[in-house]
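re: the backbone from monday

yeah here it is again, tokenized this time
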């Protein structure tokens, strides 16, 4: 049994939660790092999932005119690839998994776990070539998916399994082939079982294949239903998120979960309520015999912690998954009714907002880059604050820096708005219309709305002591209060009025100055 991300050694069954190194180097595709794609973009990214095209290593075409004419009939579609050569490679692949090559009398140590160099080079070429639609159609006509099914069932070589899943992933980028693969129930079940594999590259290619299929509207529901009927998928994905240190794998698995939750709320609810039921399908030989009792929220948090430093896009993915959980009451309860009462979730998100994202030494334009992840984080914090006002971790004396951070986000958005307005004045009318500078950024508007809602709720909870502490520590001052009032009024007038009354007790001068700037407050006193 092989640990996640490892290509050698045994994996003790009772130590399956141990973290192991991530993907090793090798002939992998650099484009596999592409993330947060959807629809046709996912297909484009997945189609690059080969080990790197090496045209010079393919068989050279014949040189004579007669042979050239003969070779043209041997070409796959409009390509220069040879049908005969592809046939020979697939035939060799069949031989690799034939009974003669898998003697039942061999011990586990004697079973071939590594590919011969020549075979690996050839099958990697096929992986590269499968990015071409003509080659993909040829492989489909030659029943390559059935051959790969045999590989999954009989091969003990992780590298071969990885390559075959990768080829299927490339083939699935083309709509008709994706439909054929998706409708094959046996193949679909076998591919889902690959999520229980212990080989990290295989898991990565399987996740990429699933994301490609889920991103095609014509087949997405087939996979959602299939996954819903296989509880083992939940266990395997939770195991990866809680146990892998492979950032690339964690990001891709996160994208799969994000897509699933976005497509089907019922499936999300099932996973929220899931208590790690036993797998209904046959597990792979190298999967753990027994998995721990997983809960979705702790697994998401563990994965987010792993990707936060190395992959901003990955962090965005996991924060969006948490935000999707808060769109249903059961999801909010899963967060705040965890054994620690939601403290770990709050602490992670608080740390991200106060110490990592949109910091004082960042240029204001940073809010444009971080707007989606900030919106997700603040949305979760807002839901938690509204539902857990009695928890110690949401007490205002512990969260004055968060108020300062929320106001800084609003200040940065104001600055970005001014820059956009200035640019629009300098641009020609048609250029302004094309660039969209005359319209408020949709995502920035969402961020502003979420930020204001959380800030208004927090301001209403401040005591005189809290405000004095905030003034002393620099989280509050006249400029920041003015920015907050400007963004909160008139929608959150009640919250501003309540804060202003308490502020008058803490700092009469500051309250009077703000009253002069915002006459509506004076009319109510």
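seq for it, each position gets an aa:
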């Amino acid at each position: 049994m092989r640990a996640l991300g490892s290509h050698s050694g045994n994996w003790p069954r009772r130590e399956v939660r141990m973290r192991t190194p991530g993907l090793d180097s090798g002939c992998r595709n650099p484009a596999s790092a592409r993330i947060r794609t959807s629809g046709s973009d996912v297909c484009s990214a997945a189609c690059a999932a080969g080990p790197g095209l090496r045209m010079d290593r393919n068989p050279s075409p014949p040189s004579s005119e007669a042979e050239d004419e003969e070779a043209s009939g041997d070409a796959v579609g409009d390509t220069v690839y040879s049908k005969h050569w592809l046939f020979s490679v697939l035939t060799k692949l069949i031989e690799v998994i034939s009974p003669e090559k898998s003697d039942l009398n061999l011990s586990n140590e004697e079973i071939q776990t590594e590919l011969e160099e020549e075979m690996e080079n050839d099958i990697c070429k096929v992986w590269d070539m499968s990015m071409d639609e003509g080659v993909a159609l040829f492989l489909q006509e030659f029943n390559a998916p059935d051959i790969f099914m045999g590989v999954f069932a009989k091969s003990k070589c992780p590298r071969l399994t990885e390559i075959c899943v990768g080829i299927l992933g490339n083939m699935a980028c083309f709509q008709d082939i994706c439909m054929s693969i998706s409708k094959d129930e046996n193949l679909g079940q076998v591919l889902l079982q690959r999520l229980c594999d212990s080989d990290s590259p295989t898991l990565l290619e399987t996740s990429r294949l699933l994301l490609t299929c889920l991103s095609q509207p014509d087949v997405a529901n087939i996979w959602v239903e299939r996954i819903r009927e296989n509880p083992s998928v939940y266990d395997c994905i939770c195991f990866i998120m809680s146990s892998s240190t492979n950032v690339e794998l964690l990001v891709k698995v996160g994208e799969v979960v994000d897509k699933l939750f976005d497509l089907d709320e019922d499936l999300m609810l099932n996973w929220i309520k899931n208590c790690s039921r036993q797998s209904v399908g046959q597990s792979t030989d190298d999967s753990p015999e027994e998995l721990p009792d997983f809960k979705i929220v702790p697994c998401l948090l563990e994965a987010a912690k792993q990707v936060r430093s190395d992959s901003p896009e990955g962090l965005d993915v996991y924060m969006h998954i948490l935000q999707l959980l808060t769109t249903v009451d059961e999801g909010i309860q899963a967060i705040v009714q965890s054994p620690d009462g939601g403290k770990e979730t709050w602490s992670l998100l608080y740390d991200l907002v106060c110490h990592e994202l949109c910091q004082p030494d960042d240029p204001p334009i940073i809010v444009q880059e971080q707007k989606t992840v900030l919106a997700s984080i603040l949305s979760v914090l807002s839901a938690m604050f509204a539902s857990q006002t009695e928890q110690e971790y949401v007490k205002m004396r512990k969260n004055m820096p968060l108020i300062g951070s929320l106001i800084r986000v609003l200040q940065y958005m104001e600055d970005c708005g001014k820059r956009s307005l200035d640019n629009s004045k300098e641009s020609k009318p048609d250029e302004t219309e094309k660039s969209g500078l005359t319209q408020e950024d949709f995502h920035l508007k969402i961020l502003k709305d979420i930020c204001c809602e959380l800030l208004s709720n927090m301001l209403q909870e401040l005591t005189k002591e809290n405000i004095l502490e905030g003034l002393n520590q620099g989280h509050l001052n006249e400029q920041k209060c003015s920015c907050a009032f400007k963004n909160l009024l008139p929608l959150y007038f009640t919250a501003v009025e309540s804060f202003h009354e308490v502020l008058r007790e803490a700092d009469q001068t500051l309250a009077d100055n703000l009253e002069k700037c915002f006459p509506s407050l004076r009319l109510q006193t």
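Residues 76-97+114-188 form one domain. The chain is about 65% helix and 0% strand.
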